[in-house]
From TrEMBL:
Main enzyme class: oxidoreductase
Protein name, per record: FMNH(2)-dependent dimethylsulfone monooxygenase
Lineage: Bacteria, Pseudomonadati, Pseudomonadota, Betaproteobacteria, Burkholderiales
Keyword annotations of the record: Flavoprotein, FMN, Monooxygenase, Oxidoreductase
Organism annotation: Paraburkholderia hiiakae
Oxidoreductase in keyword set: yes
Superkingdom of origin organism: Bacteria
Gene name of the encoded protein: sfnG_1
EC numbers on record: 1.14.14.35
Molecular functions per Gene Ontology: monooxygenase activity
Keyword Iron (UniProt): no
Residue ranges annotated for the Luciferase-like domain, each copy included: 38-363
Signal peptide start and end residues: none
């Protein structure tokens, strides 16, 4: 007769989980040692980040994005990541037609194509497929394969259509963060616990009973990122994230952003310090750069002139903005260009704005481009040396 199984408590006491930044020889610690971290926001979705039909080579395919990552690694970039989206047929419409790679699978494949750069997969941790045990095992394996270069951009999802695709109604905003906290707590314990781990969440439908994960991450745990601006999101970031992906509270115009960012960044960092933690701030500039300021402005204006109104309904308002006043037209133009903020100008002007972002409290820039491959090449050739000269890159 088989021996009865030993009873296991509903929850196992938590053990501390170290950030990868705490290990001086980790890829994350090396990236954080840069005065300004440098990343690329990959265009694994149709249309990239710009609602414009101006001809370009930007492509959502794996080979195109793999070449971008390899170029970034050659240029000394610290990290790359990409969005995750779940959309019905047709996507948002227009250039954003819904074709997209999966972020987790794409970045996982690139662990074998790279040697130094950190790869962070955007992941909706609340959506149907994920159980904390699967997630902890898969991510620990990728951390092991990449030798500590794996990261996760944790998102909870906000569009009703995405939740409905998984068969349930959209969860209230703050409750999503409470559920994500339970998920991340469980995953971190599975990475850190030396023995079997049991956990009974209060809000979520999954549970863990005597669970164990191997291999363990190489440097405590993978890099954790999240994008936020809400009170609940900032509190979540303060408790869990190493890097907080910010948007400008004053909109995409660079000078207004530079005025608003110091207080916003200070608020986020103060929230982390209240938990005894430090976080790095990251922002996503759309860089439009040419040899001269006039050429860059012409490039910008051509992108706007080819604005794809068919894709504007991905935003809160619609294409009627083109027929409104100056503020509405400026908002519509920013949608055509894309990015959290826009930096337009010569190499010297672009470098100057990035330097000013750093002075405003930004610890890293996650770049986007309109025509990614040639624009990234131009940035590497003409702007990156100026950032080295300014002491922002080593």
């Amino acid at each position: 007769m088989a021996e009865p199984r030993a009873s296991t408590p509903a929850s196992t006491p938590f053990v501390p989980v170290a950030s990868p930044a705490a290990f001086s020889d980790s890829p994350v610690a090396r990236a954080f040692a840069q005065p300004l971290m440098l990343g690329l926001f990959l265009p694994i979705q149709a249309g990239g980040w710009s609602a414009s039909t101006l001809p370009r080579g930007t492509d959502w395919s794996f080979d195109y994005n793999a070449a971008l990552v390899e170029k970034c690694e050659a240029l000394g970039f610290d990290l790359v990541f990409a969005l995750s989206q779940w959309l019905p047929k047709g996507g948002y419409g227009g250039v954003f037609d819904g074709h997209a790679l999966d972020s987790f699978m794409t970045l996982a494949a690139l662990t074998a194509r790279t040697e130094r750069i950190i790869l962070a997969a955007t992941t909706h941790v609340l959506y149907g497929p994920w159980h904390p045990l699967h997630f902890a095992k898969f991510t620990a394996t990728l951390d092991h394969i990449s030798r500590g270069r794996w990261g996760i951009n944790v998102v909870t999802g906000h569009r009703a259509v995405e939740h409905e695709m998984f068969g349930w109604n959209r969860i209230e905003h703050d409750r999503r963060y409470e559920m994500a906290a339970e998920f991340v707590d469980a995953v971190q314990q599975l990475w850190a616990q030396p023995d079997n781990f049991s956990f009974e969440p209060e809000l979520s439908g999954w549970r863990l009973q005597g669970a164990f994960v191997t291999p363990k991450p190489r440097y405590g745990r993978p890099l954790l990122i999240n994008a936020t601006g809400s009170d609940a999101g900032i509190d979540f970031a303060a408790r869990y994230s190493d890097v907080v992906f910010l948007t400008s509270p004053a909109g995409p115009q660079i000078d207004r952003a530079l005025e608003a960012l110091p207080a916003h960044v200070a608020r986020v960092k103060a929230a982390a310090r209240a938990y005894g933690r430090e976080v790095r701030s990251l922002i996503n500039p759309m860089v439009i750069c040419r040899e001269t300021s006039a050429e860059a402005r012409d490039y910008h204006d051509a992108i706007v002139a080819h604005a794809d109104e068919g894709s504007f309904h991905r935003f809160d308002s619609d294409a009627h903005a083109w027929r409104g006043g100056f503020e509405d037209r400026a908002k519509a133009a920013s949608r055509a260009v894309g990015g959290n903020i826009a930096i337009v100008g010569s190499p010297e002007e672009v470098a100057d704005k990035i330097i000013k972002l750093h002075a405003a409290g930004i610890d890293g820039v996650q770049l986007s481009f309109y025509d990614f491959q040639p624009d990234l090449d131009f940035f590497g050739e003409c702007v990156l040396p100026l950032l080295h000269e300014a002491g922002l890159r080593r």
